[in-house]
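pasting input
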Amino acid sequence: MTTTTAAPVEAARPRGDARSTSGPRRRRLLPFSPWHLLLAPLSLLFALPLVWLVLSSVMTNAEINRFPPALWPSGIHLGGYRYVLGNAMFPRWFMNSLIVSAVAVASNLVFGALGGYAFARMRFAGSRALMVAMLATMAIPFQLTMIPTFLIMKRLGLIDTLGALIIPSLVTPFAVFMLRQFFLSLPRELEEAAWIDGCSRLRVLILIVLPLSRPALSTVAVLTFLTTWNDLTWPLIAINHDTQYTLQLGLTTFQGQHHTQWAAVMAGSVITVLPVLLAFLGAQKAFIQSITSSGLKG
Amino acid sequence: MSSLPAPLTLSDQDRQRRTLRRRRRRESATAWTYILPAVVVILGLSVVPFVWSLLLSFRADDLVTPSRWVGLDNYDALTQDPHFSQAVRNTLLYTVLYVPLSMAFGLFLALVLNRRIRLVGLYRTLIFVPFIISATAQGVLFSFILDPEFGAANSVLHALGIGRQGFLTDPGQALLVLVAISVWSGTGFCVVIYLAALQDVPPSLLEAARLDGAGRLQLLRHVVLPTLTPVTVFLLLWQTINALQVFDLVYVTTKGGPLGSTTVIVYFIWEQAFKNFTAGYGAAAAYVLAVALLVIGVGMRFVRGRRPAVAAEGAAR
């Protein structure tokens, strides 16, 4: 962990100013940059599996199961979606995933901001030791804690409930430290003025600090959503009953049980990735900034 | 937080400072209420399990009947367990392939994308998108594409006159296929990190080198790559740690098979603890992994401590 400011590193701006490799201008053989000849096929290669995912989700099973399979659907067949949304439990799993992720995002913002603010601005007994202890927990891999966490959840009677999924993700050290670093980068004078005027710490945090911290808050929100929504390991351990499945757990179980109904399986996959995909396309800049800023802080 | 002794004069500012200090004294309790939820959740669900796991690893425990103390037997058994050594070998092979490949592709694509041409934003998006797809969906999707009978991959190979492949069902290919899937989804992360770092290469440095007559390749080798060193070290650490912890993709696609050819360490741990109900044995394996990760983390931090970034400055002169 560095102690420098955590203001999100200016993320990848391909059109950035600090452009490096332009030589003197050359004669043009093509009406466009020759780099397109390399980049276009390469980036299509990355997108191809996802295109195939969407295409096959609107095919019929007959189209998929013949050899060689159809490469383009004969029309938009919604049989897979109808099956998944009607007969299977996907709507329920979707709601479960949504509840777990929404609670995790909200609580990481609240508890991360409170904890981060206490560490950044308040002086209290044991703060230093506590901070070191929390930082150290970031080095403990999940595989080490998952067995006892399962036992704790079992004792609390939470196995097979969404509570078992929610409690471990209520607040992460990442959220606390991300926000602490950002708060430290803000000018202190503003807060102190309000504080002297008799504002409580909580009011200062809510009215002054948080409105200035949107980049850090969105980083915490984005990464919390991404990791909770996409997680499979912990739901696999904590949940046995299919009414409590998350989408990821539901999808892999569903695939195992409907091995030949590929259209339905692909429709289920589309539903599983769609929220993340839409969120990404809608807030691409925030996503990429979050990932680079958290990454580069390492 | 200034800890200087109060000056003797009482200007307005001093009075303010004294008020501040008085309020600070009262705020220890407030601070603790702010931090308490984080402390309970984070320490409660990591420090407690951390110790509990260690105790578990010294016991024979099936999570149901009372456990008994067996000392280091679990660790002894691990060293002799052919399944565990296979899991270690598989994980290392996966890591040794995935980490350099994803980083090399990432660096290459970032260098190509770091220029002012049209559509570059679209290219970046397309390359990055697989990274946000869950390992579950990746696994399901590629099980479909690579299905030996109905998959699109085999029909493309068929059209090219290449015989039918087993992919994930072939013990000789399965792990390599998993590496390929991971490279597909993990390269975008490296691209984005390298692109961000490339923006930070000081233009003055490039300008100076160019004035000294450095060509494109020399510029790349002696200026750009050295300035990227800290990021490369970070990525190496990050990708390695993630690769050693691979699980979801394996669970969804192969469940460790065929013939144990894709059983990785975390899959081994999960199997021992939650399928065979030998929690103590699983905990011992988890400790072995955790210690390995810690050693890598500390080792990398040590390497990183010796700031190689200065080399860039020297190289430019």
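fyi The longest helix of chain A spans residues 90-121.
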